């Protein structure tokens, strides 16, 4: 009874100022209940134990915080003696070192970074003094292997653990189990890394390789750009340790993304690129069989290396100069590899992303990638993030101008990733924290960050003079011994190696370089090709427009019925139930097929034939315009059912994920995924096509140019809702003109399908044809339910994708004098007006594939109109946008080829040139739409806007 009374008294007498003390005391109680007083133990006994033991007590702390203006005494029974009062101070000091010790850590090899004094680490801040250093106190849950010891020993241990060459940030993590794990590993070591002589020698050998390559390139190719690793050489033993240790744990593949700094060093010393090949690139030789190629520090590479756990495949992702954009591409590639291995947990495939400090803090895609990391559709079981922290961004000084946060890594706290800062001039600390960080990732399947504090011995590149912008920094650097020199001297002093051995390492490495030998220390010369993704069936094919994509009608009906079956008791929302009921009627011919039915049948047939299908975007389950309904929700309990996951037994994976509200990172992820699993249909759908401009860097740097720069095939499909419905500038245009401007060398396909059968066949063609090229589809909005935009099952069964669709009405072709060419939704506006006016001398022809432009087919269609007098191009977009500027010269050429001796005019019908994609006024939109239709058909144009252009 007395214990209950004490607990109640504690509940009412505590003040918020003691919250940190209470939390630390509670930690002690959880790990060693006997170390806290009886009254506190009774108080804490009230709270249930579980995975989140702090949840309830933190609610108490919040209650205390509301009363923080009241200064109240500590419970007398808990601090009844002066010694007990000081014991409280000791526990507070331990908490302070864990929270703020990193701010005192010796991280900067240059000793230039300003480190403010940390008052919380002073003894006096916790009611202690130097006279207490010899006093024995309980250690609480400080994991140094003792229940009690002197305050002096505790301070020495915590200084070594938290204020040496490693600065650890992990107290922001909510999960107590994760925090305790880190504490045990850090505090158990007490700042002593205890590597064997063999391990130390191996670290020196890798440092020698890192430094040796840079010195060799610097002397042989003076002034050539290489974005050298000088100043950050510890990066090489770090990456080597990650690979070897992960391989020992059973990892089969490691995928690495990194920008320029240190990339050549990584290629040669880790992945095993032959130095002779690298030297050839410096000397201007090219190894590209076709395309533009790319500079040497953008190219990808892959190899196999041997680890204690067996052979492991390494893949260094290609990347552009857009720094951090490679991160989500790597994540997508890793996810695809994990799916191929049935390893979503992340045991078999490990991602490593290497960042620059300024880019990590400055690029928004870093935040987007972190935000994806624990979501269902994008998790990869944790990523190893390594920051090569040069402490300068190009020429921008850090941190004053480069960021607003204390560290460049602060963005990682948003996902409660542990962050380990480490001094790059202490290679043993680097390797130790690398081991800890990797083990954390393997244990908890979460992202982890290593911030390698180093410097840049040269400028941004080797042609720069860095002292012009950072004079004081480079005065220090010019006098600083290299990391390898410092560590060699240390090992010689410890008698691990002698001077002769250390010097021989340098000579033997240089000799290997000069002989053109591989210098990666674990390269497998005859790799196991089963670890690779086999792209050979998709290489060397030309794009073929017409491909057999039909599916037997009976199978289509069977699949359609299958997708209308649900678990017993599954209750659909009323409108959704009607959609499903209508689709059943479409299988019998009672109703014509609409867009949603044809699209989902395309996915079903591909799954039925053994192809993986992945569909992501911000509203793909339902479809932004409520047409797809591939994911269904039970109205009684909220459970979901995806019929496409139940086409048949042992079917391929159908992945359907409503994505986070990101375009750039998500599209980059899907690109990486599509470049890794060729036998698949990977689709990203924009909520509105206009929003794709938020991912323009992915479109420019990867989708449009990846094949010609890096010989990297990709079959990614983009569904971009596009069409002028009077919804204003931000909800009309998917910027068709931008995609067409990027088209060349058959690098991608741009299509504007107008019927359900066309979307069925173009999606199927993307996979069943052996070519792998990106496909950009200008998806409709109003056509999803347009009364004329329908198809039959026979058109799905017996048809194929038509790049050009000729006039569908039964016109006398000899009577036709005007042909209107168009693409997309405007076709139906033209068709309805033509029928309304009963024009029998105007034919409307749809160009459904704008690129590759189907010239032969266009000419074949036009040649069927012998009395043609005028050709029009009609579009909804303004004259300076849409397809007109891309297609005009092609149409001129086609028309000129019909009758070389007769000039047939080619004219434009559409909106006038405009800075914005569309009008925000529904009235003006309707007026412009009516006018362009009238112009295209050659009707009386009275009262039309007078700014229409004509060519």
TrEMBL record:
GO CC, alphabetical:
cytosol; oxoglutarate dehydrogenase complex
Q: Which cofactor does it need?
A: thiamine diphosphate
What Enzyme Commission number(s) does the record list for this chain?
A: 1.2.4.2
Per the database record, which ranges form the Transketolase-like pyrimidine-binding domain?
A: 593-786
Its recorded reaction(s) are: N(6)-[(R)-lipoyl]-L-lysyl-[protein] + 2-oxoglutarate + H(+) = N(6)-[(R)-S(8)-succinyldihydrolipoyl]-L-lysyl-[protein] + CO2
- First-level EC class: oxidoreductase
Question: Which domain of life, per UniProt?
Answer: Bacteria
- Family classification: Belongs to the alpha-ketoglutarate dehydrogenase family.
The subunit field of the Swiss-Prot or TrEMBL record says:
Homodimer. Part of the 2-oxoglutarate dehydrogenase (OGDH) complex composed of E1 (2-oxoglutarate dehydrogenase), E2 (dihydrolipoamide succinyltransferase) and E3 (dihydrolipoamide dehydrogenase); the complex contains multiple copies of the three enzymatic components (E1, E2 and E3).
Q: What is this protein called?
A: 2-oxoglutarate dehydrogenase E1 component
Organism of derivation:
Alkanindiges illinoisensis
């Amino acid at each position: 009874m007395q214990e209950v009374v004490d607990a109640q008294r504690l509940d009412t007498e505590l003040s918020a100022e003691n919250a940190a003390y209470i939390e630390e005391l509670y930690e002690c109680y959880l790990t060693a209940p006997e170390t806290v007083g009886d009254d506190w133990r009774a108080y804490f006994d009230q709270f249930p134990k579980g995975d989140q033991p702090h949840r309830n007590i933190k609610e108490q702390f919040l209650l205390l915080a509301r009363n923080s203006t009241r200064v109240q005494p500590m419970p007398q029974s808990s601090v009844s003696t002066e010694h007990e009062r000081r014991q409280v101070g000791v526990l507070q000091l331990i908490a302070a070192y864990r929270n703020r010790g990193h701010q005192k850590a010796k991280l900067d090899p240059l000793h230039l970074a300003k480190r403010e004094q940390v008052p919380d680490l002073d003894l006096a801040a916790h009611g202690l003094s130097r006279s207490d250093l010899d006093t024995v106190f309980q250690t609480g849950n400080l994991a140094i292997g003792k229940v009690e010891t002197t305050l002096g020993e505790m301070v020495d241990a915590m200084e070594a653990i938290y204020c040496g060459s490693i600065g650890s940030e992990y107290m922001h993590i909510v999960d107590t189990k994760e925090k305790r794990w880190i504490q045990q590993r850090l505090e158990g070591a007490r700042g002593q890394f205890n590597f064997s002589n063999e391990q130390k020698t191996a670290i020196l050998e890798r440092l020698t390789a890192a430094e040796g390559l840079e010195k060799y390139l610097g002397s042989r190719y003076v002034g050539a750009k290489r974005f050298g690793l000088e100043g950050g050489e510890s990066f090489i033993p770090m990456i080597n340790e990650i690979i070897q240790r992960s391989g020992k744990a059973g990892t089969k593949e490691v995928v690495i993304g990194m920008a320029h700094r240190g990339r050549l060093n990584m290629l040669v010393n880790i992945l095993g690129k032959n130095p002779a090949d690298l030297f050839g690139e410096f000397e201007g030789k090219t190894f590209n069989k076709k395309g533009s190629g790319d500079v040497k520090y953008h190219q990808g590479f892959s190899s196999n290396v041997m680890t204690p756990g067996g052979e492991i495949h390494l893949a260094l992702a290609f990347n552009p100069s857009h720094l951090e954009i490679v991160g989500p591409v790597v994540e997508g590639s890793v996810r695809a590899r994990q799916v191929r291995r049935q390893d979503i947990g992340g045991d078999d495939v490990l991602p490593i992303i290497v960042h620059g400090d300024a880019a990590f803090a400055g690029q928004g895609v870093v935040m987007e990638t972190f935000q994806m990391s624990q979501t269902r559709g994008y998790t990869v079981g944790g990523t190893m993030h390594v920051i090569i922290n040069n402490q300068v961004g190009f020429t921008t000084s850090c941190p004053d101008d480069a960021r607003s946060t204390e560290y460049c890594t602060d963005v990682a706290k948003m996902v409660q990733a542990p962050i380990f800062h480490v001094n790059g001039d202490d290679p043993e600390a680097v390797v130790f924290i690398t081991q800890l960080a990797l083990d954390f990732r393997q244990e908890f399947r979460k992202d982890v960050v290593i911030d390698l504090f180093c410097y840049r011995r040269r400028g941004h590149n080797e042609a720069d003079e860095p002292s012009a912008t950072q004079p004081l920094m480079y005065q220090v650097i010019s006098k600083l011994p290299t990391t390898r020199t410092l560590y060699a001297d240390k090992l010689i002093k410890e008698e691990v190696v002698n001077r002769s051995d250390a010097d021989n390492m340098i000579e033997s490495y240089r000799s290997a370089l000069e002989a053109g030998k591989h210098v990666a220390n674990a390269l497998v010369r005859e790799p196991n090709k089963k670890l690779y993704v086999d792209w050979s069936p998709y290489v060397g094919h030309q794009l073929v427009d017409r491909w057999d994509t039909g599916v037997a009608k009976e199978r289509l009906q069977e699949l359609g019925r299958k997708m209308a079956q649900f678990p017993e008791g599954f209750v659909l929302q009323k409108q959704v139930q009607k959609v499903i009921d209508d689709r059943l009627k479409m299988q019998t011919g009672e109703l014509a097929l609409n867009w949603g039915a044809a699209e989902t049948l395309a996915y079903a047939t591909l799954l039925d034939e053994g192809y993986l299908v992945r569909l992501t975007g911000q509203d793909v389950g339902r479809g932004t315009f409520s047409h797809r309904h591939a994911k269904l929700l039970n109205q009684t309990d909220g459970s979901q059912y995806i019929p496409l996951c139940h086409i048949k037994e042992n079917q391929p994976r159908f992945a359907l994920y409503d994505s986070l509200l990101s375009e750039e990172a998500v599209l980059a992820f899907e690109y990486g995924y599509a470049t890794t699993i060729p036998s698949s249909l990977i689709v990203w759908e924009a909520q509105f096509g206009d929003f794709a401009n938020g991912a323009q860097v992915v479109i420019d740097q990867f989708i449009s140019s990846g094949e010609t720069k890096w010989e990297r095939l990709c079959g990614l499909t983009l569904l971009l809702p596009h069409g002028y419905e009077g919804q204003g500038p931000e909800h009309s245009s998917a910027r068709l003109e931008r995609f067409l401007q990027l088209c060349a060398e058959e690098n991608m396909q741009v299509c504007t399908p107008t019927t359900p059968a066309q979307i069925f066949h173009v999606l199927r063609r993307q996979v069943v044809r052996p070519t792998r090229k990106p496909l950009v589809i200008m998806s409709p909005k109003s056509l999803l339910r347009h009364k004329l935009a329908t198809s039959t099952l026979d058109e799905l069964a017996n048809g194929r994708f038509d790049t050009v669709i000729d006039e569908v009405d039964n016109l006398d072709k000899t009577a036709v004098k005007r042909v209107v060419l168009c693409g997309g939704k405007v076709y139906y506006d033209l068709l309805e007006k033509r029928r309304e006016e009963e024009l029998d001398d105007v034919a409307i022809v749809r160009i459904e594939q704008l690129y590759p432009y189907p010239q032969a087919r266009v000419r074949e269609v036009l040649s069927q109109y012998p009395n043609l007098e005028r050709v029009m191009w009609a579009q909804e977009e303004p004259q300076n946008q849409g397809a007109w500027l891309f297609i005009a010269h092609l149409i001129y050429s086609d028309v000129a080829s019909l009758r070389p001796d007769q000039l047939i005019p080619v004219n434009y019908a559409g909106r006038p040139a405009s800075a914005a994609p569309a009008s925000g006024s529904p009235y003006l939109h309707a007026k412009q739409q009516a006018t362009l239709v009238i112009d295209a058909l050659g009707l009386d144009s009275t009262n039309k806007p007078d700014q229409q252009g004509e060519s």
